[in-house]
Every structure is written in structure tokens, then in C-alpha cells.
């Protein structure tokens, strides 16, 4: 557990460093060219930095053990970070729209376009590689904060690609109106990214159930490992960051001793924790008279 905690903290710190470098590159590109589209790209990088700082806070909080005030742990802290990121993304999109509106009425001649594009390409490449890493790392650790950050960086990469295409068109055609027009498209893409992050994070805060694939794995494990029991019903699950809470009723023969029923529970808990990473299992034992004859039948 300690090595995971250290790794997650290092990745969160890495996101902050990446955000600072990318923000600096994109802001210099904007200063060199005067492009409102590059300004929108640089503004989104400011959001990247803020959300990377929020993700570091969330990771540190979520790693705290359960205490008397938070008896189920602090896993949901990451969802708050993800919601904050979504809100900031939407705010950035509104600021970009505002700047684009002014640019439509006050056309600007762009300068040093080639140099600005080179800086932007470098920054976009860095973001793209880091987003791929965060997707893989976040899914392995089931971290909403890292996955939300990866989606945001992916949106940033798409936006940057659009900005670069717009700059090429401005350079080739001389139509400066394409610069603010591309900034508007960037803002719309950012809005979509923000909505997706907020939607997924709110789902986590509302204790959504595990995916169909994970539930199928849980049912299979119970069916194979509950030898001696009759059936399992009232299976319920909920996700909270890295933790997956699993609850169900275990029906056993009325003549079975408490010790024997407890042994089945121990075996089930160990098997579920092995097959479902982060599983927290709660089992309610019932006599066979309570059997509902549906749910998970024991093989």
C-alpha cells in the first residue's frame, strides 16, 4: 500500500511539473504570435495546472485511513477534485468565448506564426504522452482524479490540433477571422470535456454500481467459492474511488453452526478481495427459511 501511495503522489507531482512546462510554452507562443486561438490554448493550460494541484490534494486525502469521523475511508475525495476540474474547464471555455468575441470585432495581424506553431506542437506532444500515461495509471488504480485529468489533457490535445490547423489556414489564406473562429471551436470542445468530467464525477458521488463486467465477476466468484451455502441474494455494489463495496445476504442451512457459516464468509471475502481489487465485503447470514430462490445459486 505504501508503494502505491508513493507512486500516486509522484504521478500527481509529475502532472504539476508537466502543466507548468506546457503552460509556459503555450503562453510564449501566444506572446510571439498574438493569436487568440493560442491564447485560448494557453488559458486551458492554466486550468491544467490548477486541476493538477487539486488532484494532488485529493490523492493525499484519499490515501488517509478510515477514522472515527470517516469510518468508510476518504476514497471519495478524488471525486471532489474531478468535479472541481469540470467546473474550471467550463469557466475556461467561457473566458475563451469572451476573448474570441473581442477578436472578431478587432482583427489582429499574426506574427512569428512558424515559431509559435513549433512551440505549440512541442507542448501538445508533451500533453499527449502524459495523457496516455495517466489513462493507463488511473485505470489500474481506479482513480477518478487521474482519469479526469487524462480526459482533460486529451481534450487539450484535440484543441491544440485544431488551433494548429487554424493557424496554418490563417497563414496560407490570410483570413484572420479564422483565428477567433478556431478559438470558439476550442471553447466548445472544452465545454464538452468539462460536462463529461462533471457527469462521471457526480455519478461517483452518488454511489453508482460497478460495471456489468465487474458484477459478473463478483457473481461468478460467489457461486464458485460459497460451497456449503444455499444461495446469495440482495447483492448490492457501489464504487467509491479505489474502493468497491460489496454487500449481500448469504443463505445457509438452518442446522449449520455459526463457526461453519463464518468460515464460508471468510472464504468468500478472501476470494472477492482477490478477484476484485479494492473490494470491501459485508455479508449478512440468513437461515434457509429466508431463501428467495433467486440471485446467485451456489455451485
UniProtKB/TrEMBL annotation:
Keywords in alphabetical order: Membrane, Transmembrane, Transmembrane helix, Transport
Cell compartments where the protein resides: Membrane
Listed transmembrane segments: 9-30, 36-59, 79-97, 117-135, 156-175
SUPFAM superfamilies: Cation efflux protein cytoplasmic domain-like (SSF160240), Cation efflux protein transmembrane domain-like (SSF161111)
Domain Cation efflux protein transmembrane: 15-206
Domain Cation efflux protein cytoplasmic: residue ranges: 215-288
InterPro entries: Cation_efflux (IPR002524), Cation_efflux_CTD (IPR027470), Cation_efflux_CTD_sf (IPR036837), Cation_efflux_TM (IPR058533), Cation_efflux_TMD_sf (IPR027469), CDF_Transporter (IPR050291)
Family matches, as NCBIfam families: CDF
Record's protein name: Cation diffusion facilitator family transporter
Species assigned in the record: Kaistia dalseonensis
Amino acid at each position: 500500500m505504501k508503494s502505491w501511495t508513493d507512486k500516486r503522489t509522484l504521478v500527481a507531482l509529475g502532472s504539476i511539473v508537466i502543466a507548468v512546462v506546457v503552460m509556459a510554452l503555450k503562453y510564449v507562443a501566444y506572446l510571439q504570435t498574438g493569436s487568440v486561438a493560442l491564447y485560448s490554448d494557453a488559458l486551458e493550460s492554466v486550468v491544467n495546472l490548477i486541476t493538477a494541484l487539486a488532484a494532488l490534494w485529493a490523492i493525499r486525502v484519499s490515501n488517509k485511513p478510515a477514522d472515527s469521523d470517516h469510518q468508510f475511508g476518504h476514497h471519495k475525495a478524488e471525486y471532489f477534485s474531478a468535479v472541481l476540474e469540470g467546473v474550471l474547464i467550463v469557466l475556461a471555455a467561457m473566458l475563451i468565448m469572451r476573448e474570441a468575441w473581442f477578436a472578431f470585432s478587432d482583427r489582429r495581424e499574426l506574427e512569428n506564426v512558424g515559431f509559435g506553431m513549433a512551440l505549440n506542437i512541442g507542448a501538445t506532444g508533451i500533453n499527449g504522452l502524459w495523457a496516455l500515461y495517466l489513462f493507463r495509471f488511473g485505470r489500474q488504480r481506479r482513480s477518478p482524479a487521474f482519469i479526469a485529468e487524462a480526459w482533460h489533457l486529451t481534450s487539450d490535445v484535440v484543441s491544440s490540433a485544431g488551433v494548429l490547423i487554424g493557424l496554418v489556414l490563417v497563414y496560407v489564406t490570410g483570413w484572420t477571422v479564422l483565428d477567433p473562429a478556431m478559438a470558439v471551436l476550442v471553447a466548445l470542445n472544452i465545454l464538452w470535456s468539462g460536462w463529461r468530467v462533471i457527469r462521471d464525477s457526480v455519478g461517483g458521488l452518488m454511489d453508482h454500481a460497478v460495471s456489468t463486467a465487474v458484477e459478473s465477476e463478483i457473481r461468478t466468484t460467489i457461486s464458485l467459492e460459497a460451497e456449503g451455502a444455499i444461495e446469495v441474494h440482495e447483492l448490492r455494489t457501489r464504487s467509491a474511488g479505489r474502493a468497491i463495496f460489496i454487500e449481500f445476504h448469504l443463505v445457509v442451512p438452518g442446522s449449520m453452526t455459526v463457526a461453519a457459516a463464518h468460515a464460508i464468509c471468510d472464504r468468500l471475502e478472501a476470494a472477492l478481495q482477490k478477484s476484485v481489487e479494492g473490494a470491501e465485503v459485508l455479508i449478512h447470514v440468513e437461515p434457509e427459511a429466508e431463501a428467495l430462490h433467486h440471485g446467485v445459486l451456489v455451485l
